[in-house]
């Protein structure tokens, strides 16, 4: 199946999984924000494309056929993968990475910076912190620092 045909089937696959999960065309249509007849058309289109009956329809309920169960499992994996993509990319957008280099006096580092650094690293585990502790004057231009407190 070519990519264009496959892409056209993705909304139908979502509709199919929603029908199976919710148990009816009406419940699926409410979750998807379309009419029950629209959901029915999507399922019919998917069945035609796959040349297989996925649901046995009665007036009261839909029963998944054996082939429908197989298609459901694969379809669920597709939806889970798409959800993972969205989850990963949304995490990456807000992620703090890189290295923060700080030079500070001993007492200030112990009382103020150390608790803040632990909190920072817990919140941003991919970030790196380097703390240079010294009561001596530190030349901020002599070494690469993000923050220098003398």
UniProtKB/TrEMBL annotation:
Residues of the signal peptide: none
Name of the molecule in the record: Transcriptional regulator LysR family
Ranges of residues in domain HTH lysR-type: 1-65
A GO biological-process term: DNA-templated transcription
Any one GO MF annotation of this record: DNA-binding transcription factor activity
Membership in a protein family: Belongs to the LysR transcriptional regulatory family.
Taxonomic lineage from the root: Bacteria, Pseudomonadati, Pseudomonadota, Gammaproteobacteria, Vibrionales
Pfam families: HTH_1, LysR_substrate
Keywords of the record: DNA-binding, Transcription, Transcription regulation
């Amino acid at each position: 199946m070519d990519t264009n045909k496959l892409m056209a089937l993705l909304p139908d696959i979502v509709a199919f999984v929603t029908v199976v999960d919710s148990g009816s065309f009406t419940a699926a249509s409410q979750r998807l924000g379309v009419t029950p007849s629209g959901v029915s058309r999507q399922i019919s289109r998917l069945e035609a494309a796959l040349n297989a009956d996925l649901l046995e329809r009665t007036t009261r309920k839909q029963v998944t056929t054996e082939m429908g169960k197989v298609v459901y499992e694969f379809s669920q994996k597709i939806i889970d993968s798409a959800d993972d993509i969205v989850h990963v990319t949304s995490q990456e957008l807000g992620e703090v990475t890189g290295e923060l280099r700080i030079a500070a006096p001993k007492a200030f580092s112990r009382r103020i910076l150390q608790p803040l650094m632990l909190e920072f690293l817990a919140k941003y585990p991919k970030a790196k912190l380097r703390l240079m502790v010294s009561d001596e004057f530190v030349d901020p231009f002599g070494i690469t620092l993000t923050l220098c407190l003398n």
